[in-house]
Amino acid sequence: MNTLIRNARAIYCATESHTHHESQISVNNSNPAVPTDIRIRDGVITEIGNQLLPTDDEQVIDAIGCVVWPGLVNTHHHLAQSILKGVPEGLNQALGDWLGSVPYRFWPKISPQLMYHAARLGLYELLRSGATTCADHHYLYHADTSPEVEDAVWAAADELGIRLVLCRGSATVQGSHKGMLKHGIQPENVELVMQRMERSYRQYHQAGDNAMRRLVVAPTSLVHSATADDLRTLAAWARERQLKLHSHLLEVSFDDLQAQEKYGQRAIDYAASCDWLGNDVWFAHLVKSDEYTIQQLAASGTGIAHCPTSNCRLGSGIAPALAMENAGMNITLGVDGSASAESGSMIQELNLAWLLHRAVNGADATHAEQIIRWGSQNGAQLLGLNNCGDIAVGKAADLVLYDIGSPRFAGVHSEVIAPLLCAEPVSVKYSLINGRVVVDNGQVCGLDEAELVAEVRAGVADLLRSAG
Questions:
Q1: What is the per-residue pLDDT across 337-348, written as a single tens digit (0 to 9) for each?
Q2: Considering Cα of 156, then 160, then 161, then 163, what sign does the dihedral take?
Q3: Which of these, 140, 136, 144, lies nearest to 114 by C-alpha position?
Q4: Could you give the CA distance from residue 275 to residue 212 in angstroms, rounded to a whole number?
């Protein structure tokens, strides 16, 4: 479908100067210096300008009252946790105890049907906050896992039209992983992991800068649920296929303590010894990173999925993202799972990242353009989606139209960054992915909200009964 977006109040183009973004007070659609229209052909942006005239083969989207942003890129999620929000036992627990009380208590009992509804719910929340790409760290695997649980995630993403990077979790030993130990979950062995991943790779993975489906090799924990040999084997398997690598690391100090106790090394050095640093690797959290750790990450080109909401919710701390960026690391943002970040909103992550680092480092520590780049361009680059994450001619048309016509935005002088400044609730009027409309006049396409609510509530009730 060819599309012409017209009459936007502002278009956020990251190639423009930082000063322009924060000093722009308003946009007058009659001002020829400020673009208001975007032309899309075959899923690609072909023209940005003013008063562009539609052709006979174009649908026209009236963006009046909206600002247009590049689609946001979520680099770390757990879609299965969309049905585990606010579990009472874990509300006031830190990570270690929370793992046993919440995700690992329930996930072996999540059926393919419930996983499908959980994925749809999580992806719905992302779409309505402005995300167009989701990297889901899916770790619902054990010795007897049905492949239909993973298939349900791919199916949900296909139906909603969102870009999905499935980070295939795994555990090959129970090790020191508190959640697996508490519930006696029997892990896969590394041969079974690779056999199952090969199926996913052949069935779903797409190469290219504009792929809709990507597979990533993502053992759930480097330190706690895999052997060094297994990690090296998985890294080699991934690199033979030019797949990226992802895991959790240093969310809490327990990673360093266990790495020292089990391997006689710091966690970051253990990762290096297992071939798990590099420009094809990124870790979620990295909250407990000191100067030495940051140096090793930066020197190797390893990236981060910064998850501020979840890290606050579990009391883990604040990742030193500014020091990491200054060292040359690629900073991206993730919403993490809704069992520890109940909002599931990329806009919340952007707003909290913007605020938290100011609270610690001062009012000029973060800037709007920087944070939007973390949430869009940087994430696309990290995932290898090099044609996404920006609004420019030749880029994929992953675009979000935020409606800023409601009263809460009326007093905002810097309109183009109003969604970041004012944060939730935001209103996504339209969203396009590869030029396809996936949110149409405020409604997520292909999804009945009332039906989704009914299915999720019924599934949660069944899950509670099965989990006792």
A1: 999 999 999 999
A2: negative
A3: 140
A4: 28
